[in-house]
Design brief:
3 helices, alpha+beta
Length: about 140
């Protein structure tokens, strides 16, 4: 078997795991979008939040290998923020904006709304010239 054939076989062998991981990350990004829409509180939806899935600009391989980042642009009114997320040891680990980071062990509604509110504060701080919070678990 040639090196090329070995590469093709490896890609095929792990296709299901990669697809499951991609679906989980996209579902997480979609849930984060909904959390951002409701971050102002019950009955106060933010209508000017949109989600646009994109290829992560840091990925150098397609399809994305297991453990790679999946990305989306979230439009938050007058700005857009790139959010990158991947699965690490069963948790969602990600980055957003200039230097925002997160790690969520649980992805319940409260945890996602907490992350959404932190993201809004961090992005506002970036535009105001302040330093966003550094990585730390939210739950």
């Amino acid at each position: 078997m040639s090196e090329f054939d070995e590469l093709q076989a490896a890609i095929r062998r792990h296709a299901h795991a990669r697809q499951a991981e991609a679906q989980a990350c996209e579902a997480f990004l979609n849930a984060l979008y909904h959390a951002l829409r409701t971050a102002s509180g019950p009955g106060l939806p933010l209508n000017n939040v949109t989600l646009d899935f994109t290829t992560d600009p840091a990925n150098r391989l397609r399809p994305v290998p297991s453990g790679g980042f999946h990305a989306a642009w979230l439009r938050l009114g007058l700005c857009e923020v790139l959010v990158r997320v991947r699965r690490v040891d069963g948790a969602f680990q990600g980055e957003y904006g200039e230097s925002g980071c997160f790690r969520l062990e649980q992805t319940g509604e409260d945890a996602l709304i907490t992350l959404a509110r932190r993201m809004l504060r961090d992005v506002a701080d970036t535009y105001a010239g302040a330093e966003p919070e550094r990585i730390r678990p939210l739950n």
